[in-house]
Amino acid sequence: MNGKKVAVVGATGAVGREMIKVLADRNFPVSELVALASSRSAGKNLTFRGEEVTVKELKPDSFEGIDIALFSAGASISKEFAPRAARAGAVAIDNSSAWRMDSQVPLVVPEVNPEDVKWHNGIIANPNCSTIQMVVVLQPIHRAAKIKRVVVSTYQAVSGSGQKAIDELTGQVKAWSDNKPLQNKVYPYRIAFNALPHIDIFLENSYTREEMKMVNETQKIMGDDSIKLTATAVRIPVFRAHSESVNIETEVKISAAEVKKILSGAPGVKVVDDPANNQYPLAIDAEGKDDTLVGRIREDESIEKGINLWIVSDNLLKGAALNAVQIAELLL
């Protein structure tokens, strides 16, 4: 297999670093890694396969000779530079929200809609982290029983807001233990020992943009606008791995036992469901794992055709870096 010249945009960020690690861990055929970031980070050194890589400043001509460009530097950067990468002959795989709902750009989760990479025009979008872990579980159930409606509440780790949020939670916990005032800058309120039902900005319909991302992206990825979905997104004081309570209503009656059997054979999914022995998915168990964990699988006794699930996944891996590299693998 011929090696590819791969660029990582936003290489010094939390997701960028994970992308570099995943490329190495999965033995992606990289002939040369180009680490790109802002001028503030240019000159820093990162490690890839045991060798140092010097970060370069992102510039308009940074993509000459690049085959694949993995983006994780924010929507404004992606809006400007992903088309530049595509015009230079690279395929841009973008982790921001910039291109997800563009009708000309595939939105891909490899376990769900791998065939959509075939119609890209130089840009492929990586979905929102909370959407990814949900659809890898929903899709096998949808095939078996057709999902009509989804109600999801998320419990999302601070790493979803970046390194500054991780540092803020760390600082607040230390301040609390030292009986000092807790400072908050990233979030409108302290996050330590708290839960904030507020991720991203509020929209005119009183939902947050994070919540509406889950609605719109799920329908696009699963290719079915008939699926009705409502979401509440909550930030909690966990460093890494998002958790979700998901209630689904199906057209065809399906039992909890059938769901467990279906999900046990689903790609990228691991069933952790033995309540008698207190076995269920935990954020601390999902951290650093490629699989999306699902448990607490039970029938919703309030409706005839309902299932409840608890889904946990590493938001920096399957929710971002791993999914992006898996898309790159499809391109090979």
Q: What are the salient characteristics of this protein?
A:
about 325 residues; Dihydrodipicolinate Reductase, domain 2; six-stranded parallel sheet; 14 strands; about 30% helix; 2 domains; six-stranded mixed sheet; Rossmann fold; alpha/beta
Would you write up a description of this structure?
This protein is α/β, with parallel strands linked by helices and 332 residues long. The protein has two domains: 4-127 and 320-331, Rossmann fold; 131-315, Dihydrodipicolinate Reductase, domain 2 (2-Layer Sandwich), CATH 3.30.360. It has eight helices and 14 strands. It has helices spanning 14-25, 75-87, 129-145, 163-177, 209-222, 256-264, 283-286, 317-331, and strands at 4-9, 30-37, 45-48, 51-54, 56-57, 68-71, 91-94, 123-125, 147-156, 228-235, 242-250, 269-271, 292-299, 306-313. A six-stranded parallel sheet has the order 5-2-1-6-7-8, with helices on both faces. A hairpin with a 6-residue loop joins strand 13 (292-299) and strand 14 (306-313). Helix 1 (14-25) crosses helix 8 (317-331). It starts with a strand and ends with a helix. The relative contact order is 0.15. The model has no long low-confidence stretch (mean pLDDT 97).
SSE topology:
Layout: E1 4-9, H1 14-25, E2 30-37, E3 45-48, E4 51-54, E5 56-57, E6 68-71, H2 75-87, E7 91-94, E8 123-125, H3 129-145, E9 147-156, H4 163-177, H5 209-222, E10 228-235, E11 242-250, H6 256-264, E12 269-271, H7 283-286, E13 292-299, E14 306-313, H8 317-331
Parallel strand pairs: 1-2, 1-6, 2-5, 6-7, 7-8, 9-10, 12-13
Antiparallel strand pairs: 3-4, 9-11, 11-14, 13-14
